[in-house]
Design goal:
732 residues, alpha/beta, TIM Barrel, seven-stranded antiparallel beta sheet, 29 strands, 33% helix, 20% strand, elongated, FAD-bd_PCMH_sub1, oxidoreductase, Oxid_FAD_bind_N
Length: 732
């Protein structure tokens, strides 16, 4: 007796007759209307009387809304796997995650050869299928920059670029009967898909046993493999027996008869579900989440009670781990990534994380330049699923911390609104909106935090609160130290089109170029905000300048931008009138780390001669190959220093530089640049020295933060990002 506890799925197995192509589409639509889950289609590319299965599935996906679709099964010898991987990912994206992939090793070899395919022995066909699965999985895995490498006997894919990533993890089901195919199913497939017509009842148990044995040898839980069956029966008792005694949980009716399909969905499927649920309850059968197999469990790290995790989680060994382990710049190796879906689950996740003997990090969008939203061996509370964007009446906006600013800009832009929020669309709301938020319209409209009017916060003890005035003051600039913000309330402002300008300069006279640019920006209209990147190209310093004029008055924009052209010899320039969302468009990228995470940051009142000489000396030292200066001032400095925890309201420039190692960039920065800085934008600095906290939070702001820390987080749970020690606690 075998019951793997899977939820029950019901579908149809349709014939793609080319003589009446609309008929099979209508049967698929009927499958959906009848309440069935899945429509599958035969695949015989050599059969002239049939529609091409892939084309048909694409058409059906466009004509349905919830129906999952799958070939049953795809003739692999006539489907090159690298191309198939891209086709499958594309269809999955277009159908919003509705594709499943049934694969066969091949049959009917004469017509396959006639179509230009290979002739393979049974053994060769199994080897080829395994290689194809490796190609598919590597092509879909975009969590590494390395090219696909499968150097097989039948398929050699060496260096192909990965992607696109499917909308979900496309399950691979194998049509298998013989021992070698069954063992391959256990090792690498997500489902076993035989046909009832080709098996006898006494065949099921030995086949399941082979799959289970192979799964266990591969370090998998046998329950990871769904048992599916193309059936030619609608008898409820027989289907119940197949589920409870033989482990099948997906039943696919092989019929093109509309009445049979409708009855299967409206009568048979509900009756089978009810009978199986009743018997499972009586037997105490474990259902639902399968858990991890031995291979995954073997990668678990010490200090974490994995089985007690209260919300959905990703751990080392899971397929999704590569997508959630790292930030934009830092490669992390966390022991567990918790993924709550609402504020209550955030509270549960935080309480659980406090009970574990490992570091804790909180992450919103994952961009985090400082790299502090990941760790090694610890727990991450990933807020990516709290990504709501709600625009109310007027200018009121509610944002989830896991939303990314590119999507926020798109939504606000559709309402004629905007919010200055960094310079990259994949930045998460939570990290930026608790640190400051220096964006392309800051000189006109101020920092992002200057527009936050309210927040919902999970405190260190797990309590869920609406921020009172003290807490709201603290999270606007030091939010990572006081709780997990699960919703921001902001007041946006009208924004239509803006002028976006790019310029490039030969910056061999680096100090002079920086001084000239700084002076012109400080004396420019507030509508103009400018970001300067100084990079080394073949040993020559080059300035890349990105500027936004926050308005659609092109004549005024030209007047504001023109003085920048004599900063240094011009190499390139352009300007265009664009909607603001186009500047911070969402990228949809996966953060994979790997870049340097040795970064120093500071704030400067002016780019005077001494400051510019220091920055030039830093670049000449060779310890930094990339320097960025963002203009602030203007509306940023209209806000009183004591209005928010971000107290830096006199500086006009935010500076940061990337180095090769923390030790070396510290030495060069401290010698050449630090004496000219007055403050720190904490999200850009990775210097671990505790004294940096005083650069980020000058007095009396720091003293007030320590008093509030003692009130809201007395145990200093939130200490991963420039830890503020509670008042009366030791500073060492």
């Amino acid at each position: 007796m075998a019951d793997y506890g899977h939820d029950l799925v019901f579908g149809t197995f349709l014939t793609p007759q080319a003589s009446n192509p609309d008929d099979v589409v209508a049967l698929a639509q009927l499958t959906e209307r009848a309440g069935l889950d899945l429509a599958t289609f035969q695949d015989h590319p050599y059969q002239a009387a049939f529609l091409d299965t892939w084309t048909l599935m694409t058409w059906v996906a466009a004509r349905t809304e919830t129906l999952r679709i799958s070939p049953n099964v795809l003739s692999l010898p006539l489907r090159q796997p690298a191309v198939l991987a891209r086709s499958a990912a594309s269809l999955d994206l277009l159908s919003h995650g509705r594709l499943e992939l049934g694969l066969g090793a091949g049959a009917f070899w004469d017509p396959i050869v006639a179509m230009g395919g290979p002739r393979r022995t049974p053994g060769e066909s199994v080897v080829a299928l395994e290689e194809a699965i490796d190609v598919l999985r590597q092509m879909w895995d975009v969590t590494t920059r390395r090219g696909v490498r499968v150097d097989g006997e039948h398929y050699k894919v060496i260096g192909a670029k990965r992607g696109p990533e499917p909308a979900h993890e496309i399950p691979i089901h194998l049509g298998a009967y013989k021992p070698r195919m069954l063992r391959l199913t256990g090792r690498k497939a997500d489902g076993w898909l035989p046909s009832q017509a080709y098996m006898q009842p006494e065949d099921y148990a030995p086949a399941n046993a082979r799959i289970d044995e192979a799964a266990e040898k591969a370090g998998r839980d046998p329950r990871e493999i769904r048992r599916m069956l193309n059936v030619n029966t609608s008898d409820v008792e027989e289907l119940v027996e197949l589920a409870l005694e033989h482990g099948f949980s997906t039943f696919i009716l092989g019929s093109d008869d509309p009445a049979s399909i409708q009855r299967f969905g409206e009568e048979i499927a509900p009756a089978v579900r009810q009978a199986v649920a009743t018997e499972r309850a009586a037997r105490g059968t474990t259902t639902g989440s399968i858990g991890r197999g031995p291979a995954v469990r073997a990668q678990r790290m010490s200090g974490i009670d994995y089985d007690a995790a209260p919300v959905a989680a990703v751990e080392p060994g899971d397929r999704a781990y590569g997508k959630v382990r790292s930030t934009y710049m830092r490669k992390g190796s966390p022991g567990l990534v918790l993924q709550p879906e609402n504020v209550e689950e955030v509270s549960k996740a935080l309480i659980y994380a406090r009970e574990q003997d490992v570091p804790l990090a909180v992450r919103s969008g994952g961009h985090g330049i400082s790299g502090r939203s990941t760790n090694d061996g610890g727990i991450i509370i990933d807020l990516g699923k709290l990504n709501g964007i709600a625009v109310g009446d007027g200018t009121a906006v509610r944002l989830g911390p896991g939303a990314r600013w590119g999507h926020v800009a798109q939504e606000l832009g559709s309402r004629g609104l905007g919010m200055s929020s960094g310079d990259f669309g994949d930045v998460g709301v939570g990290g930026l909106a608790t640190a400051g938020g220096v964006g392309f319209m800051s000189r006109k409209h101020g920092l992002t935090i200057d527009h936050i009017t309210g927040a919902q916060v999970v405190l260190a003890d797990g309590s869920i609160v609406r921020a009172d005035p003290d807490l709201l003051w603290a999270i606007r600039g030091a939010g990572g130290n006081f709780g997990v913000v699960t919703e921001f309330e902001l007041d946006a402002y009208p924004v239509d089109k803006v002028v976006f300008s790019t310029m490039a300069f030969d910056a061999r006279d680096t100090a002079q170029a920086l001084t000239r640019w700084g002076y012109r920006i400080e004396h420019s209209p507030r509508e103009l905000t400018s970001f300067l990147n100084l990079v080394m190209q073949q040993g020559v310093p080059i300035i890349q300048l990105y500027s936004v004029y926050a308005g659609d008055d092109t004549e005024a924009a030209i007047e504001a931008l023109t003085p920048l052209l004599d900063v240094a010899p011009v190499l390139d320039q352009s300007a265009q009138l664009v909607p603001y969302p186009a500047i911070v468009a969402p990228q949809g990228g996966i953060h994979m780390g790997g870049s340097p995470t040795a970064i120093r940051a500071g704030l400067a009142e002016h780019l005077d001669e001494a400051t510019s000489n220091g920055l030039a000396a830093l670049m000449e030292s060779g310890e930094s190959g990339w320097l960025q200066i963002r203009s602030v001032g203007g509306a940023v400095n209209d806000v009183p220093a004591d209005a928010t925890a971000y107290a830096h309201r006199t500086q006009n420039f935010s500076v940061n530089a990337v180095g090769r190692t923390m030790e070396r960039i510290n030495e060069a920065w401290d010698e050449h640049v630090y004496p000219h800085m007055n403050g720190l934008y904490l999200s850009f600095d990775t210097d671990p020295r505790q004294e940096r906290i005083h650069d980020a939070f000058p007095e009396p702001t720091f003293a007030r933060l320590r008093e509030l820390k003692a009130k809201y987080d007395p145990d200093n749970v939130f200490r991963q990002n420039f830890a503020i020690t509670p008042a009366h606690a030791s500073m060492t």
